[in-house]
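Hello forum,

I keep getting stuck at the same step: I have a sequence, I want structure tokens, and every attempt I make locally crashes halfway through. Rather than fight my setup again tonight, could one of you with a working pipeline run this one for me? It's a single chain of 178 residues.
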Amino acid sequence: MKTKRDKGAITVSVSTHAVNVRGRMRPLVPESYFGNLWVATITKGVMIRECNGDIQGVLENQLRNAIKAIDSDFIEELKGPDGSIKAHEGMKSMAENYLDNDIHLCHFSSWGRFPFYEADFGWGKPIWVSVCTIPVKNCAFFIGRRWDDGMEVWVNVEADEMAEFEQDQELLSFVSIP
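Reply #2:
Ran it on my machine without issues. Output:
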């Protein structure tokens, strides 16, 4: 977002986040069940000029509220006859309102709590888990590490933006290389 803002290339930013609903369901879905149970949240469009330089804070707050809205009432609606429609409302809204406009769209997904390092298909548990490809631009996947409580972040942005991203001092203050 910062590199886009500094270029003056966009006027509105929007964020999406994939939310795992397994742990939010009652009764809980048994761990032995296989498959994806997630919904996409989406923030409202944030006008850059109206954020007083704190677009990240505004989007973070909106994203946090969107994730909190995936509550027990929302989950109960998913179980109803129109559950699949409800589950895809965020993606439908994004497609209808944002994809054809000059909007900066950022996608996030946290895989920090998935038990990837517990999987054993007969060769032993994995030493390292990663994302092989990220076919979506402006996307970040957060993945837990095996050796500590830290996270790896896999980011996909345009090459010129990645060059700036890798040099950002604020970002680098949060990074440690093992």
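Strands lie at 12-20, 38-42, 46-47, 103-110, 139-144, 151-156. If your local run keeps crashing, start a new thread with the error log.
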